Structure formats: structure tokens, C-alpha cells
Amino acid sequence: MKAKKSPKDKFEPLSDSERFEDGKRVTEAKILKRKTSQREEVGISIRMGKKVSYLDRPLFGKGLWITRELDIKRWLKWLTNVIKKLYSKAFNKEVELEDIEFWKAKVSELTAELTRASKRLEELQQKQEETKKLLELAQKVRDKFHEYAKKFEEFRTLVEKSYYQDVRLEETIKRFLKENRWLLGLECQIEATNKKIDSKSQIDLHVVTKYNQHRIFELKSPNLKPFVSKSGRMMFSRELSEGLSELIRYIRDSDLYSRIQSLGTYGILKPTGVIVMGYNLTKEEYHFLKALNFFLYPHIQVVTYNDLIETSQRELSLIENLKPENKHL
């Protein structure tokens, strides 16, 4: 924890302010990115101040700067004890049971907020890292924009044909995606390799990315629905159940072999599985899918063809802006 800052420090807010107000007294907390001439770091700023009549904002004094390195559990315990002791000395008043419960509630509330802030921070950092990697990959294929754009239109046409004509094009879709793995994400195409799949497995595609991440795919025809409604209840379709079963078995076996440090059949650790299935889901189906993915994360996710199309469009837009003729952008 650092209490002093250099005048040259620059701060960039990464979250909205959280405020506690008690009459004229105001306490404010927010996530900030702190930049100095030597480095940058992310932390939580907590300041106390008061409202004044001639300003439309509170006047704040120096505050606390909380970083990831702080042992937050021990610090909060210490802070509670210190406040209790100093409160008694300053105001000649012992903290009664109700005050203890008050502070316990405040500590619990602050701990919960810090946990949420830490999670938001991790998500922001993860998103920044993913964006950095995506830019790095897009840079390597900036000369292939027209080729990729053409393949994207062919892919979208196949998806719409399968869906609107209700025709099963599973094998055609599989072949197309295996030949154009970038549609499953640039990380699956650029400096990535296919891993030979056990002949006993029904898995469609196993990709090892440039970053040594193992991605396993089960690809279903766009016209197949992931869910069916029975007696007013949403349930897994037979095809989704089969896909989940195959992925779980494959991930279980790969993890088992890795733990005993033997190549075995797969010889990998902690792969992630993706089932590509469904197109133009209803609102009810979409909410059910969102809830399902919440429970399957981070090991397995069900991705719709709408998701693939939207992701591919974003990647194409990024590549287009990196084309040689657009490199000044």
C-alpha cells in the first residue's frame, strides 16, 4: 500500500466511483491506472473528503492506494482493530457490541467490493492481453484480407442455407472450418497446428494454438437446435448431449494422462472444449444458453454460428485496418 504519489503521476480511471456519504462527509473508491515515467500499475484509490457550498464536488484529502501485492485479508483485520483502538482513544468512548457489528458489516461490505473490483480488474487485464494477442495475430495476415473476406461470405452462405432450408450440412461445415480455422478464431489458424485425434474419439478438431493452448471443437450443423422444449421446460437436444459427452470424455482422458506424466493417448493438460451449434436462437434459448455457459466455464463453452460470424466480422475489420494500404490508420 502506498500513501504518497509523485506530482508527475498520471491517473486513468478504470471504473465508476463508489461513494459513501454521511452528511457532509464523503468517502470515494475507484479503480485507477497509475502511470509514472518508469512504469504503470493498477490499484484501488480510497479518499475521504467533505462537501463545500461553493463547489459542485467534494474536496478530498490524501487517500489510500491499494495494489494487488497487499495482503488484503490481514490488512482489513489490522485496520478494524486500529480503528477500534484509536476511536476509543480519540473520543474516550469504548466501541460497544453494536459498533463492533457495524464495523464487521462495513469490513464485510468493503471486502466484497474489493473482491468485485479485483475481479473487474482481472477481466480488464485479460481483455487487454487478448486484444494485444489479437493485434499481433492480425498483423501476420494483413495481406490476406480479401482471401479471408471471400471465405467468410462462403461460410455465411453455407450457414444460412443449412438454417433456412433446414438441410443438414454437418460434414460440409466441418470440412470448411477445418480448412479455414481462422473462422474459429485467429489463434486457431496463425502458427497453430492440428493435433492428431485418437481414432476412437468422435472429436472433430483439436488445435494447438501459437500460445500452446489446446482447443477442442465439436462442430454441428447450423440447422440443428441445441435445446428442445418439453412440457414447458427447456432441455438439451440429443445432438448437444452427445457433443457434451464426447468433449467431457476427451478432456477427462487428456487430463488423466497428463497427471501421470505420460503421453498416453492425448498427452496434454487442461484443454478447453467448444461446441459450435445453433443459429438465430430465440430469446428464451439465448438466456438458457447463457446460463449453461456460466456453469460450463472455463472448461467447455457452447458457441452459436451467430457468435462465429460476429467474431469473424470483427477480426476481418481489424485485418482490413492493418492492410498495407491502410497502415497509416
3D structure, described in words:
- With 329 residues, this protein is an alpha+beta fold.
- It has three domains: 1-70, no CATH class; 71-140; 144-326, 3-Layer(aba) Sandwich (Restriction Endonuclease), CATH 3.40.91.
- Helices cover 45% and strands 20% of the residues.
- The chain is built from seven helices and 13 strands.
- Strands 1, 2, 3, 4, 5 and 6 form a six-stranded antiparallel sheet that branches.
- β4 (40-50) and β5 form a beta hairpin.
- α1 packs antiparallel against α2.
Largest sheet data: 6 strands, antiparallel
CATH fold-level assignment of the largest domain: Restriction Endonuclease
Overall pLDDT score: 81
The name of the CATH architecture of the largest domain is 3-Layer(aba) Sandwich
- Taken as a percent bin, the fraction of beta residues is 15-25%
Q: How helical, in percent, are the residues?
A: 40-55%
Cα shape: elongated
Broad structural category: alpha+beta
> What's the Cα radius of gyration?
27 Å
Q: Give unreliable regions as ranges.
A: 256-266
Give the CA-CA distance, first to last residue: 40 Å
Number of strands: 13
Tally of DSSP helical segments: 7
Succession of helices and strands: EEEEEEHHHHEEEEEHEHEH
Number of domains: 3
Query: What is the CATH domain class of the largest domain?
Result: Alpha Beta
Topology:
Layout: E1 10-13, E2 18-22, E3 25-35, E4 40-50, E5 59-60, E6 64-67, H1 72-91, H2 97-140, H3 145-164, H4 170-179, E7 193-194, E8 205-208, E9 214-219, E10 227-230, E11 233-236, H5 238-259, E12 272-276, H6 283-296, E13 300-303, H7 305-322
Parallel strand pairs: 9-12, 12-13
Antiparallel strand pairs: 1-3, 2-3, 3-4, 4-5, 4-6, 7-8, 8-9, 10-11
Helix pairs in contact: 1-2, 2-7, 3-7
